[in-house]
Specification:
Blueprint: H1 3-26, H2 30-46, H3 48-52, E1 55-58, H4 69-77, E2 81-89, E3 92-98, E4 104-106, E5 112-114, E6 120-121, E7 128-131, E8 135-136, E9 142-143, H5 149-153, E10 160-164, E11 185-187, E12 192-194
Parallel strand pairs: 1-2, 1-7, 7-10, 10-11
Antiparallel strand pairs: 2-3, 3-6, 4-5, 8-9, 11-12
Amino acid sequence: MDKNQENSELITKKRALRKELNQRQCSLSKEYKKEASLEIARRVFESKEYQEAETIFIYCGTSNEVDTSIIIEDALKKGKHVALPKTLSLGIMDALEIESIEDLIPERHGILEPKEGSRKIQPEEIDLALIPCLGFSRGGYRIGYGGGFYDRFLPKGNFTKIIIAFEKMSVEDMPVARFDHKVDKIITESAYDDVF
């Protein structure tokens, strides 16, 4: 099989998996997402990586994702530097620091991002990244929404990378491309796993 055919098959597999995961994500109940988000936050708070981190990079979850506001507020209260993604163009983002939840404004697709003028955090300043996904494998790979933002950002720093996700979004057979980056750990409502 030549490289183009291999890439084409991988793209087709990822597209089909995204469709399946989007349907699965939309079927999760509000009660499940609320309870699971609280348990995920508790596991994050108990982790050595979070406790020792001075600067964290975290996303602001949508209504279908883990509610990260609990973690963001806790980190700010503890005096940690908190940075969130700011979309610059397709597939490109920066990490901008916020000082309160009020520093977030709705941007593309209604996703909350830091407002203009927030301080840019360099990747080498980040100690811990809490990463979103549409689905994940126990092998430490994730599938996102297809924009490639995290695939481009994650290799820039030497920080600990942890997926936070609902257990129900786990995938047995994850199609992996050469530019997909493995994380260090995975936190769900039922597990805190190292990736080997």
